[in-house]
Amino acid sequence: MTTSTSTPPTPSLTSTPSASTRRISPRAGRFVHAVVVYGLLLVLTGFILLPIGWMITAALKPDTAIIFTFPPEFFPTTSFHWQTFVDTLLDEDEPYLRYVANTTFLVVVNMAFAVIANSLIAYAFARLRFRWRDRLFGIVIATMLLPAPILLIPQFLLFFQIGWYNTYLPLTIPTLAGNAFFIFLLRQYMRTIPIELDEAARIDGASHWTIYRRIILPLSAPALTVVAVFTFLGVWNDFFGPLLYLADGDLYTVPVALATQVSRVGTEWNKVMAANLIAIIPPLVIYFVAQKQLIGGIASVGLKG
Prior knowledge:
By secondary structure, this protein is mainly alpha-helical. It folds into 2 domains: 29-81, no CATH class; 96-299, Orthogonal Bundle (MetI-like fold). The protein contains 15 helices and no strands. The mean pLDDT is 83.
């Protein structure tokens, strides 16, 4: 009689997954993806905000020589010189408040002209029926293809011959002619408003002016906000227009005044940086105040034919 000895079973190498082949859970994968994405966004944000941070530190340094020390000092070693902002605003040689007032005047006038003129033209293309309406609208859109330098010399000669040079007229009156992009934007938005509102108003005896003022304008507020904000940014940051048409220093706007300060010998860079920081405050305020209306107005513009 023979006895057999049984050997214990050997563990299988493929019965349990190893650590190297173990898959990451979906939740952990999403977490890693979010960390990578937000990390890259923070790095890019730092690169974008680095010039603004340097402007702040340069404005807070009391002397121009300290700004250009090597190795560079990102923070003042002694103290923050807040008096630079006050000196910039109250400087008698460079009346910065006057430049801000000049720019504000141009901004307000152009915003009013842009909203009124473009909305009237867009109303005609969107709500009225007349001969060659679509062809005229196509011609208006085609003007967007014209490069601005082509019209530069003829416009300057025209305004110079009629006596508008060294005045604000060349920087304001042309806005009443309308802007092709704004006309397209408002026209497309107005076409999304139900036409039944116009018909009901006409039954009650309303004229086109009443329909435009009492119905179309209030309902087009998001698109009009887009026009106003874009006009504000364009006029506030416009450098070439005032440089071309204004010769009197008392009429200068903020961008031209800043450029003239830099071109001089012995530039006070701390005051220039302080003036630049003051100049970027109004666009930031306008953007944060009208952010919802701006994004909603752009997103709600339809492409109705």
